[in-house]
Here is the input.
Amino acid sequence: LVKGDIRAANVYAGRHAKLVGGMAAGNDGSLHVSGKLRALYLHQVTGTIGENAVIDHQLSDCDLTVGFDLDARGATVSGGIVRVGRHAAIDVLGSGDESPTRVVIGSLGKLESLLDELHAMTPDLQADHDAKRAAIHEVEKQGQPQAEITELREAFQAVDDLLPRIEAGLGRVDAIRDKQRSAKLWVTGRVLPGAVVDFGQTAVRFTEPVAGPFGLRLNGSEPVLEFPADHDTVDLADVAEVIDGSTELAKESARAA
Here is the structure.
């Protein structure tokens, strides 16, 4: 529990953290919380939150990753990028000057790129596995020295043990990723032009203001707006453009470099 404001400091919390006064890092500080976070505001903060985050007033110009849910129903989220593992609820998304504001919904953060790398490696491992098995058969047929055969068998066994563990692990994490892709953004107040909501391969950039409450989620691969029964509905095509989320990710990586 921190009652006053935090300025340009590096904060690490092994469990949960409550920042009554909030934090303004000026891009010179960071915030890393293993568990849950509650803060009045965060400004120009780079950080990771392991579980849920509650922001009471403002989240501005941050680079923040939230493992589970973001509850900013009473807050404005403007500028920067916020990655949320599951659902996000925000009062006002975007800024009046249309400066870039990006929220990534259903994000596994750095694990996303690691998963893609592992998926790409699996065919090569399978090919190596098959080649080693064929090599063992060949040297046995040729009557090669036992030491050479033993060496090949040990190399084959290492890959043979590794492949099923990788495939099982990827299957479990892919199931988590699929579940997180059903995550939703809920806006209680409004979205302003320039705000981008990214679901991974698909992203939505708002070109017009939209008053809440409403939800935004994927229906298959298509983003859809959902309004309460007593609310006037809006066609997404009239207020936003659907863009390639991977392109937005590439832009972010280029800026970071």
